[in-house]
UniProtKB/TrEMBL annotation:
Protein name: Orn/DAP/Arg decarboxylase 2 N-terminal domain-containing protein
Lyase as UniProt keyword: yes
Post-translational modification N6-(pyridoxal phosphate)lysine, affected residues: 73
GO molecular function, one term: diaminopimelate decarboxylase activity
Amino acid sequence: MQSIESSYDLVKPFNIKDKQLYIGNISVKELIEKYDTPIFCISGNRFEDNIKEYEESFRQEGYKYFIIAYAIKAHTNLTLLKFAKNRGTGFDVSYKNELYAALNTGISPDKIFFNGNAKKRVALVEAIEKGVMINVDNLSEIDEIIDIQKRLGKKARISVRVNPEINVDTDPAVATAVKGSKFGLNFKTAEKAYKLAISNNMDVKGIHMHLGSQITNMSVFKEGVTKFVEFAKYLEKELRLEFELLNFGGGLGISYAKNRLEEEKVVENLKEIYKNENIHSNLYCPITKREYVKNIVDSVSILNHDVKIVIEPGRSIVGDAGILVGRVLNIKDSLIALDIGANLVSANIISSYNNIIVANKAGEIPDGNPVKFVGNLCYAGDFVSPFEWKMPELNKGDIVSLMDAGAYHWFFASRGNSVEFPATVMVYKGKDYLIRRRERYDNIFGDDLEIDL
């Protein structure tokens, strides 16, 4: 197995000065001295720039009618949601608490898109009352909505989530538009859902799909988008309707590896580590936001009428805007023990990788002795990274940063050993803001009922 070395090919505003990792003009060392470790650090500037890049892509394609609906599941934080809303985004939500958090920002409900394959009735009621767009996932949900409409005396605003059933070249855990997926309806069943919605006086606004996550192969988007738009055109003709919007979901990947060579080296290591698993080469994403948007804009021309385009990016907005920072607690031979563990890393996605930088020794020459980073959990599989790394000489107290860690680490986080979840800090325009407190004992056990039996 080849050892991995830190990559210093960083996206702005992450940079290195005097062997220190910086977010803009604030060093990671300064942040942990102020807020301790472990900690998530989010660059508000990078988050904002990623939104602007999507907006500019639509404008460069001459398209005015669009909504960029930030996928809340990628990184959920109330300050971050208000930050996104204040920059014009909508929201993609998938659970009742995400719905409530989105509504809490004061956003117009018609910019919220409610996804999910198993929505609870209480959330559907809230969505219909407020006028949120419901992306219907199954026929049972149609029946539920019919009953709620009758009780409320109010129409539901709906799209139907369709599954184009293509080969989605990404990790199977995040491929959603494949045959047998729990998400969406095949075209035949989707047509039936639309007929039921129309006959039951629902406010049919559009059509929805989502291909998957961390997609780095443009042919996947081309095939999925083409099938989706052609089906939309078919439905408009057969059912005599005109969709106001087409929701293409999200899925655009980010570059965890910064070039093909780095990706190939990481993938070879993954194949060695996970010998019996199907490892996907989707750690480097050559697709630009402009190329992604252009493919969508070009596709809708076959409809011959104006239509609002909705996209639901998450990872490609927040993924490279965040880092996870910990400290070296002790060193045992080649094992470097940190105060962050596998509970904060997307370890159930086998084809996963985060570049690691020693933030207070950035750019220093590796000492030649491969090391492995382990966590602080009582669990033998608690590896922060499965790879062997060539690093500068490490000492207790050194600062270790997992790069491109803004997306989905919270989604998969667990509270093994009753470990507190980290604080989160946003750095924006040269200032740092605590946007999530570090958990305390009462947060962890506050809902327990202590009975002396």
